[in-house]
Write a structure and sequence with these properties.
This protein is α/β, with parallel strands linked by helices. It has one domain (about 5-310). The chain is about 50% helix and about 15% strand. The protein has helices spanning about 5-25, 30-40, 45-60, 65-90, 95-100, 105-115, 130-140, 155-165, 180-190, 220-230, 260-280, 295-305; strands spanning about 100-105, 120-125, 145-150, 170-175, 195, 205-210, 215-220, 235-240, 245-250. The strands form 2 sheets. The protein has a 7-stranded mixed sheet, with helices on both faces. A hairpin with a 2-residue loop joins strand 8 (about 235-240) and strand 9. Helix 3 crosses helix 4 (about 65-90) and helix 10 packs across helix 11 (about 260-280). The longest helix is centred in the N-terminal third of the chain and has 25 residues, at about 65-90. It is globular. The protein starts with 6 loop residues before the first helix and ends in a 5-residue tail after the last helix.
Length: about 300
């Protein structure tokens, strides 16, 4: 049964802890290099998944050569190892040292909303190192929660959640919590900030949106909460510049005044547009290993039957 602890879960957890311990023994830059090498090499162990990554990139960027597609795919996979290594080191740092490796541009926008108790939703995707931004928000004084999916391995999930909130914060689980939508509403009602990643394949209550030219299932949760609670949405882009992880807080997007299925769909499309812009700007920064268009055929059928939503 999902989320129940088993001996195999504990063995996996011990293996992960051993890897993390080894990475922390290395200097920061060495650990990042080791992580990049490790996940880049995994493509030889998972050739079908890597081939799928290249297929999706080629579909999104038909003008790119096979060599360019391979380079984007490889860099994206290497980035997964960098994320782990950076996360492990950053969670062990004091705030002053942390700021040597991570910066936030526009943090005052979130802090102002927090001070005025207007609340807001942080719109962020699986770009560069999204986990670093979660930590940085707390270091900069943002009292935030995140809406996340629970990992199947309970030991790994508990440890990940502990590290995510090591500088303060909390987590609402979208797939294993009693009414997470209402917990999120109560949080926003207090004038606080809630972080949501919606660039994953939605399995239910989806909004069908064309993303990079192909139909994908998006969760409407960000648009729904923003409209219902009338709170701003802060798009947050994460990039690497001059050896630092830089989190850019863009100007807030205000939701439609009135709720309807159509206004929710249209605002979801606006939010998806942020992801498209970031992806086109730096294709390798996104988590291409995730099968984002898993339900493409289903979505195409739906939009054909509902042309008003296309």
């Amino acid at each position: 049964m999902r989320f129940q602890k088993t001996p195999s879960h504990y063995i996996q957890y011990l293996g992960l802890k051993t890897v993390c311990f080894g990475l922390r023994l290395l200097p920061y830059s060495w650990a990042v290099a080791a992580g990049r090498f490790a996940t880049g090499s995994v493509r030889f162990v998972m050739p079908k998944r890597f081939k799928r990554t290249m297929y999706d990139i080629q579909r999104a960027f038909p003008d790119k050569s096979p060599k360019e597609v391979h380079e984007i795919a490889l860099e994206s996979w290497r980035n997964m190892g960098a994320i782990l290594s950076e996360f492990i080191h950053l969670t062990a740092m004091k705030p002053q040292k942390f700021k040597q490796y991570v910066d936030i541009i526009g943090a005052e926008k979130m802090l102002d909303a927090q001070t005025k108790k207007t609340g807001g939703i942080i719109h962020i995707g699986h770009f560069t190192n999204w986990e670093a931004f979660g930590l940085a928000g707390a270091v900069w004084g943002v009292d935030k929660a995140v809406l996340a999916q629970r990992v199947d391995n309970p030991y790994v999930d508990e440890e990940t959640n502990r590290l995510r909130n090591i500088f303060t914060g909390r987590t609402f689980y979208s797939n294993h919590e009693d009414k997470p939508f209402f917990a999120s509403m109560r949080w926003l009602k207090k004038g606080k900030l809630l972080g949501i990643l919606t660039d994953q394949n939605a399995t239910s209550s989806e909004v069908w949106v064309r993303f990079m030219g192909r139909v994908a299932a998006f969760s409407p949760i960000t648009a729904l909460l923003a409209i219902k609670m009338q709170v701003p949405v802060f798009p947050v882009q994460v990039v690497r510049k001059m050896g630092k992880i830089v989190c850019i807080v863009h100007d807030p997007l205000m939701p439609p005044k009135e709720f309807s299925q159509e206004s929710m769909r249209q605002f979801t499309k606006v939010l998806v547009g942020c992801y498209e812009d970031w992806l086109k700007e730096n294709p390798a920064s996104w988590l291409w290993a995730h099968n984002r268009w898993k339900r493409e055929a289903e979505g195409e059928r739906y939009l054909k039957e509902h042309p008003n939503e296309a």
